[in-house]
Amino acid sequence: MSLSERLSPYQPSALAMLRLITAILFIEHGSQKLFGFPPAPYAITTLFFVAGVLELVGGILVLLGLFTRPVAFLLSGEMAIAYFTVHMPINFFPANNQGDGAILFCFIFLFMVFSGPGDWALDNRQRR
């Protein structure tokens, strides 16, 4: 049996772990913008407030695995906008503009649009 065949049964659980860790990290960004915890090194503007609401509420929904695909689509778009409006004007290269996180969040959420939530998600209970 190949390594791929041995690992395949664990794919839904691995996807769930990716979803959970991504959501927890994303919630932290939302709470930073909305509640100042952890303390933010920047001033909160209206745009940052809207992003904070999306990140906190969207992160909680992704954490629960509830409406994962549409929420992940929305959050992927938010991160693309964040990259091009906040990070890219600073510098073209992600390593220089601190946009690595925005790019990773964007593509992890885009992956979830197509993959679904994996195991341990409320979306799975709704289908039954």
Structure, described:
With 128 residues, the chain is mainly alpha-helical. The protein has one domain. It has seven helices and no strands. It has helices at 3-7, 11-35, 46-64, 68-87, 94-97, 100-115, 122-127. Helix 2 runs antiparallel to helix 3 and helix 2 crosses helix 6. The longest helix is centred in the first third of the chain and has 25 residues, at 11-35. It is globular, with a radius of gyration of 16 Å.
Runs with pLDDT <50, length 5+? none
Number of domains: 1
Shape: globular
Figure out the total of helices.
7
Q: Which H/E pattern describes the elements?
A: HHHHHHH
Overall SS class: mainly alpha
Helicity range: over 70%
Q: Report the sheet-strand fraction.
A: under 5%
Radius of gyration: 16 Å
The profile of the biggest β sheet is: none
In round numbers, the mean pLDDT is: 95
DSSP summary, beta strand count: 0
How far is it from the N-terminal to the C-terminal residue, by CA?
A: 32 Å
Features:
single chain; 128 residues; mainly alpha; 7 helices
Describe what is shown at a glance.
With 128 residues, this protein is mainly alpha-helical. The chain has 7 helices and no strands.
